[in-house]
Design brief:
The protein is of the alpha/beta class and 779 residues long. It is globular, with a radius of gyration of 25 Å. Residues 182-470 form the Glycosyl hydrolase family 67 catalytic domain.
Amino acid sequence: MPDTPSPTIHPAWLPSSAFRALGSRRVRIDAAGPLADTVRAEVSRACSLFGGALVTPEAPADLILTTAPATAPAAPATAPAASATAPAATLAASSAALPGSAAALPGSAAALPGSAAALPGSAAVPAVPAFASGSGEGYRLGRRGAATVVTADGPAGLLYGMFEVVRRGEAAFDPALPGERHEPAFGLRVLDHWDNVDVHPVMGQVERGYAGGSLFWRDGRLRDDLTRVGEYARLLAASGVNAVTVNNVNVHAGETHLLTDRLGEVAAIASTLRPYAIRVHLAVNFAAPVILGDLPTADPLDERVRRWWSDTTDRVFATIPDFGGYLVKADSEGQPGPFTYGRTHADGAGMLAAALAPHGAPVRWRAFVYNHHQDWRDRSTDRARAAHDHFAPLDGRFADNVILQVKHGPMDFQTREPVSPVLFAMPRTRLALELQVTQEYTGQQRHLCYLPPMWSGILGFRATGDNAPTLAAMLSGAPGSPAAAGSPAAPGSPAAPGLPAAAGSPVVQQQPAAAGPSAAASGAGLGGAASGRTSGGGVLSAVSNVGDDPFWTGHPLAQANLYAVGRLAWRPDRDPTEILDEWITLTFSDAPDRLRRTLHTLMDDSWQTYEQYTAPLGVGFMVRPGHHYGPDVDGYEYTPWGTYHFADRDGVGVDRTVATGTGFTAQYPAPWSDRYESRDTCPDELLLFFHHVPYTHVLRSGVTVIQHIYDTRFAGARRVAEMRSQWREMADLVDPAVHARVTERLAEQLRSAEEWRDQVNTYFYRKSGIPDAKGRPIH
Ligand code: GCW
């Protein structure tokens, strides 16, 4: 079937109008090579729209985009950013680092794993991997004479610097613009697509996708027209992402061939993404040697199997020289893995790592491994414990280019979970944080749910105490980050991990965007900017929420979640409200104040609103089995999936204490092990995740659990009704197509929120026999 691309694709955060300031200037580009060509094309398109011009090196310019000489330090931490003169002869130096050029490929000696400086805090922590860093991504922004100057560390930095100028608009040309240094905290910023090549009979084209079909695949093959993939690359580069995994971690039979005889399709995607400095990753099937019919075994210690992976991987790199790496889901939810052969996950990952190491590339190995054949009567098995039980004992046994990819919570992307303890239990293993942008459990892009406040709380979590480094600092190896040294969340308070106390007050400390040495630059002892390392180590991954929907994400306002991932990967300590504001400015350029204010009102707290009408106090699930949309309080209660709330006539919640429960609290370091262990210090929002309590238990907020359930369900549904009216009033300020789509989604959100309210309330009223103290109707 031929592709039928929709003629009206929403421009998301890159409408033409966002380029007005840049496009009306005289712009000089002192750089050459493919990425510089991309920048040149962007600038000339903008200039043709707004009357500016690309000018020659001799001509006066309002904006100079240049790459710093590769021989000079990338950015002395103390040097005033704007003081450098634009190097006239940067072209040859920069071309060495262009993607696609041999010198930039990860096989070069400089890019071999283990070559960078060590992470902070522990001598045992492995070196920051060069392969996790995009090269030359940083840049300085400042003024020289009458011009604004972007001096990039390399070609990718030129692209990112150009998009920063776009984001700033007129402010980028303010004569008082201070000198700033920018570089990403996380070196690898990757969006994982759970896209199937063949339409899966149950999961469809995109597993957990709520925005139509795949951008890459259609009915069993690569799309003929990859124009949208190119547009996607452009959007991602503008948000700061630098890698994409093109297929589902559940690698079915057809998709297994992408590694070998269908590699050409992956190469075509790689070519489309490359102009925007985005590398391709592939999810691979652990049993590929068997499935593809080449070998009788996939045993990771079998020499034939190891050779197979090594030869296959060599062919991948021969076809796609800047290939990013593998992603593996093994021994999980039916996927094959090393357990079949009595081997460990370190053995399994090690085999793939050995195949990738000569190319300087990593394997991301997922820690999402648990028993999905449980019996609710067996209280000793706890799914929350599983990842730690499986992986923590293997710390130190993973190869240098293995990155263990850990979901942010111990269960499964629920609306509220504590931060996974695995992230603090493996100091000798490289770890990646996995977020879920696709809203599997958070309203499936029918509900408005701006997720960055949740992510911000996770990135800002301080596992070992209120003055300890944040998770972001630990993972990114950027200890100088203000996030690592900022003011603590109050111990045990509701403002503790993942629990912003109120809207707009995220846990993570803020830093003025531009002031002083940057986060990474101040980590000079780490091989930071001063030593020429232009990106942080570390990996931030997220499951994409994009499809072939004209608005990209189904719900047009869910674009903000996608935008924010890249922005947080550059600056994990940024205020989510500020990121939202930036997204509004770009997406609704020329937005009058009334629209801006309303969007904040609708979105800033929307995650908390969603939480208010769904499963209470961190207990999770209560969704309809299979598709996970809408309420079904007991939907998973008697299934083998290990996702129980244990409500009975006396109380609700999962006892995960050491004293009387599954002992999960002991997987945390102090002080959190103690805080979670005690009902008195466990944050309210996570109470039912850690404790089974009577309905009459009084929360730290002063209300009983049952009354909290009623109050928040009523408040949540009421809030959605208000949101609907507030949006209605925006009709004159928003593109009618966007307005109509959001209107339709809010109507469904309200229907669903009322359904949640009624089902949860009536369930707990009947279980507990305790009426609502305020006498409201419980249906
Ligand atoms: O949350 C579960 C999803 C599965 C998904 C799995 C995973 C890709 O329901 O659809 O499979 O997580 O993360 O592997």
